[in-house]
Amino acid sequence: MDPVLFKIENRMRSSIQLPSSAPWSIHDSLGAPVYAPMSLPVMVPVKPLGWVQYGWDQKDANQKQVPAGKYEARISYWLGSTKYLLKTPFQIDQATLSVSGIASPGGRVDLNIHVPISTGRAYQLACSLGDSPGLPLPGNRLLRLNPDALFFLTILTPGPTFQNFTGITSKSGYATGYVNIPMDKRLIGVTFYAAYVTLLASAPGGIHSYSTSKAVLIQ
Fold first, then answer.
1. Domain of residue 11, CATH code
2. For the chain, does the N or the C end have fewer beta carbons within 10 angstroms?
């Protein structure tokens, strides 16, 4: 899964003091605490123009994946004798897609699925040459892939180029599809888009969740 990264940056002329080695916590949309890291009770100075970055692995205090929804990162610091609390809202999507690998002729691109609300369910990956206007889904939803020739190729006849485009997500909601880019230099400069859906018979149109699209530039 992708970690949630956030940082505190000192843009003032004086140093600020962090009250511990990890002075941050995560709260849900109602303000209830979700996670706070173990930290040492030592003051950590941050000089002017300095910054400190932290990361959260999207797990709660029991080390379980949190559900999709709205959250808030809180970081405290001291300026002189006054203590301040910064609050930064963010959202965890129901379905995420990350891209890794080598996007070049002869290379392989990995499409990494993570959908914690659809564990052990069927998924379908697809690619297209555009992401607008997209493909309407039942339930007033929109998949950011165009129903073009590449889209239907990846669904109907994926062949050796598009592998693992259908399957079952793991018990943790993970799966990976692969794009084996042909050894053809004419593909350099081409951008394609990837996204996926998970399936559930009782969901609108049989589609339980869907990801945003990711652009991949062949270089």
1. 2.60.40.2360
2. C
Helix (H) or strand (E) holding 167: strand 166-168
Determine the structural domain holding residue 83 and report its residue range.
4-92
Residue 53 has pLDDT above 70, yes or no: yes
Which of 92, 111, 141 corresponds to the end of one domain? 92
Of 156, 135, 216, the C-alpha closest to 181 is 216
- Within the chain, residue ranges assigned H as helices are 149-156
What is the mean predicted confidence (pLDDT) over 4-33? Answer: 95
Residues 56 and 153 in one domain: no
Q: Residue 210 has what DSSP assignment?
A: E
- Print burial letters for 111-130: b (CB count within 10 Å at least 16), e (below 16): bbbbbbbbeebbbbbbbbeb
Chain-centroid distance of CA 30 in Å reads 23
Same-domain pairing of 205 and 115 = yes
Say yes or no to pLDDT of 173 above 70: yes
Kindly tell me the burial class for residue 149, based on how many C-beta atoms sit within 10 Å of its own C-beta (0-12, 13-18, 19 or more).
exposed
Position with higher pLDDT, 72 vs 65: 72
Evaluate whether 125 touches 166 at the Cβ level (below 8 Å). yes
Nearest to 72 by CA among 22, 99, 36, 120: 36
Q: What is the pTM of this model?
A: 0.64
